């Protein structure tokens, strides 16, 4: 027994590494986050089962009390519907596979056809409505829990990126036939215009209308050729932006136009500022000359007044 306990503890220690198994972690997170929903689902199922169990218990109790001792169905009814608890258990087993529902249906038909129809209604409501709704809610909550779990999202993104890297590498190797490790602009444009490659890029989430704009976005250093690094990283950048390639080209053109316009405006502002400074300096010089002449004129007038006063 001690050895078994030690083995059990050893297995529990291995649970620390469950985060390495993504699927197991996904199931664990989904089960833990759906625990509250499980409680409400059980309560809803118990409520529906309880309501029908009350109806069936009254019917079978009346039938057993009125039946003779030689009735072959009395023992089965006492077994399956002897109490409210057993009635609920029987109904639950009928919809969960614990007992063949025809066995229960046969007993209800013996009581009355109406109760057989009510039992069919219970099966329809429970199986087609309640259980399916509960399953849908569980699936939705499980998906929401995986979206909110940071580690699972990181693992999912890493897996998607790895798959995309492998596919992009395979596409580049198929396009690069010269063995130089680079693809020229002419060869690239000719190959990406083929419908086969367009479909492959579309499966990766990359859409373009012409190869010229596609190449312009990938050729960052503008040397008319791209290597595998430029190709893969450029495609990942476009994929991450979640935009059409034509839109990216338009954005690049807009950025270039804005930059050119900004430089031209700055140059014009500098020229205007320089001219304004020249005009201001000229006005300052004229003002100084005017003030100087005014001072000279006042000096001459003052000298004449002084000479007249001396005479």
UniProtKB/TrEMBL annotation:
One of its GO terms (molecular function) is monoatomic ion channel activity. SUPFAM superfamilies: EF-hand. The chain crosses the membrane at residues 81-103, 115-138. Residues 2-145 form the Ion transport domain. It is a multi-pass membrane protein. The keyword Membrane applies. InterPro entries: EF-hand-dom_pair (IPR011992), Ion_trans_dom (IPR005821). This is Ion transport domain-containing protein. It comes from Noctiluca scintillans (Sea sparkle).
């Amino acid at each position: 027994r001690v050895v078994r306990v030690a083995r059990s503890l050893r297995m529990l220690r291995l649970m620390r590494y469950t985060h390495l198994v993504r699927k197991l972690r996904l199931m664990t997170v989904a089960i833990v986050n759906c625990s509250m929903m499980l409680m409400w689902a059980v309560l809803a199922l118990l409520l529906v089962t309880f309501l029908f169990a009350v109806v069936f218990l009254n019917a079978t109790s009346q039938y057993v009390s009125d039946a003779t001792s030689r009735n072959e169905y009395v023992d089965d009814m006492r077994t399956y519907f002897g109490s409210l608890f057993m009635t609920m258990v029987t109904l639950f087993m009928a919809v969960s596979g614990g007992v063949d529902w025809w066995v229960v249906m046969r007993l209800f038909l013996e009581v009355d056809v109406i109760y057989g129809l009510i039992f069919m209604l219970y099966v329809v409501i429970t199986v087609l409505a309640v259980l399916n709704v509960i399953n849908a809610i569980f699936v939705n909550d499980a998906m929401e829990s995986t979206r909110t779990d940071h580690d699972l999202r990181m693992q999912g993104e890493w897996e998607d990126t790895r798959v995309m890297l492998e596919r992009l590498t395979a596409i580049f190797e198929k396009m690069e036939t010269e063995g130089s490790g680079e693809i020229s602009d002419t060869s690239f444009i000719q190959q990406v215009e083929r419908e086969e490659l367009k479909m492959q890029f579309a499966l990766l989430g990359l859409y373009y209308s012409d190869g010229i704009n596609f190449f312009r976005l990938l050729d960052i250093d503008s040397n008319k050729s791209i290597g595998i690094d430029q190709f893969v990283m450029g495609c990942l950048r476009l994929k991450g932006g979640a935009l059409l390639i034509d839109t990216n080209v338009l954005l690049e053109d807009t950025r270039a136009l804005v930059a050119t316009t900004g430089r031209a405006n700055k140059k014009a502002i500098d020229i205007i500022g320089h001219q304004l400074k020249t005009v201001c300096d000229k006005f300052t010089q004229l003002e100084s000359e005017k003030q100087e002449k005014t001072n000279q004129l006042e000096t001459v007038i003052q000298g004449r007044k002084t000479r007249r006063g001396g005479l």
